[in-house]
Write a structure and sequence with these properties.
About 20% of the residues lie in helices and about 25% in strands. The protein has about 350 residues and is an alpha/beta fold. Strands 1, 3, 4, 7, 8, 9, 10, 13 and 22 form a nine-stranded mixed sheet that branches. It is globular.
Length: about 350
């Protein structure tokens, strides 16, 4: 998909610069010629899914691994799936390709193993973006550091990514969630860049939303058991304020919005991206939409209705979207909905 590629020793290609104005003010997002999203980690791997002109599926067998129970001692390996999300984003504009890593999955090894099985070295990554601080999106940072080294590799995060959080379900012992360590990331060599406001990367052609405006009435965030530590007490943390998305404008097509969990709400995120960029057309929405489980089932119907009104060309709900929401989205948007699966590549080009 590329003519020339920015070298991995050019980290400034993906450094953020402050976007003008507050979140409600317009930002000039430069259109791109091509964007490729490779799902490195998702909750599901289905080796029988078929592709099309914009979707490339990996085969069921991605090389051979040791398996002594078989004659010959080997068996084909598929892609790893886990409760986490990670995507590699390649953006081409004016003959130059820049590669960003958006989230890193749950475990230290799934992302790097899957990348290896896809023939991706991860050596050409220009920057890392974390959608938020939950451990199922940041666990693979250890594997990334161990596989390629990350000296001076920019990593864009919201300042709230370091928040201590726990789940305090009534009737059960409270369970504190793993919390990202700024000290550990600095020691590994990541160049951590904290931005609460929107940032423009890759010569102004990739937008990181920063904190998302919450404007819908139905997207109210996490239920009461999700709590954050204030320094003095545990309090309900519905907003997950560090939730942010990655946005690209494909020339002549519209916005491509990539979410991690979508804690801010899928519709809030899309509308926020539209307001920031002044681009009304939604071309594609991919990533976790956090509509799974009883607490979020009431949000499914209004989300589907609003998203249907936006008429996207491609919808790839993954990770924490939940099976009920998947069914509803597939029924409402049969021409746009595509099943997500670890190892799948989505190739979107300008009109």
């Amino acid at each position: 998909m590329c003519d020339t590629t920015a070298g991995p020793n050019e980290p400034t290609a993906s450094l953020p610069r402050p976007a003008p104005g507050a979140a409600v003010d317009p930002i000039t997002l430069e259109p791109v010629d091509e964007v490729e999203i490779i799902t490195l980690v998702d909750n599901v791997f289905d080796g029988l899914l078929t592709g099309d002109e914009r979707t490339r599926r990996p085969p069921m067998g991605m090389g051979m691994v040791a398996a002594p129970q078989f004659e010959g001692g080997r068996t084909p390996a598929g892609m790893l799936a886990e409760h986490g999300f990670s995507a590699l984003v390649r953006v081409r504009r004016a003959g130059r390709v820049t590669t960003l890593l958006f989230d890193t999955g749950l475990s230290p090894d799934a992302m790097v193993v899957n990348a290896g099985r896809l023939g991706i070295t991860l050596d050409d990554i220009h920057g890392v973006v974390l959608s938020h601080g939950h451990f199922d999106h940041a666990g693979g940072l250890a594997g990334l550091a161990g596989r390629r080294g990350v000296r001076s590799l920019p990593m864009v995060v919201h300042p709230g990514v370091w928040t201590r959080r726990r789940l305090a379900v009534p009737g059960r012992p409270a369970e504190e969630l793993p919390t990202l360590s700024r000290r550990a990331l600095d020691a590994e060599g990541f160049e951590v860049i904290e931005r609460r406001d929107p940032s423009l990367l890759v010569d102004g052609s990739v937008l990181i939303t920063g904190e998302v405006d919450r404007t819908t009435e139905f997207e109210r965030g996490m239920p009461p058991p999700h709590q954050a530590w204030t320094g003095a007490e545990w309090v309900h943390d519905p907003a997950v304020a560090d939730d942010q998305a990655l946005v690209v404008h494909v020339r002549g097509r519209g916005l491509v919005v990539l979410t991690g969990c979508g804690h801010a709400g899928a519709i809030n995120i899309v509308r926020h991206a539209q307001r920031l960029t002044g681009v009304d057309r939604l071309h594609a929405l991919a990533g976790g939409l956090h509509l799974g489980g009883p607490a979020f089932e009431p949000v499914i119907a209004p989300t589907v209705e609003a998203l249907t009104g936006l008429a996207p060309d491609l919808v790839v709900p993954g990770h924490c979207t939940g099976w009920r929401a998947q069914h509803a989205l597939a029924a409402a948007l049969p021409g746009a909905w595509v099943a997500s699966s670890s190892g799948t590549t989505y190739h979107l080009t300008a009109a």
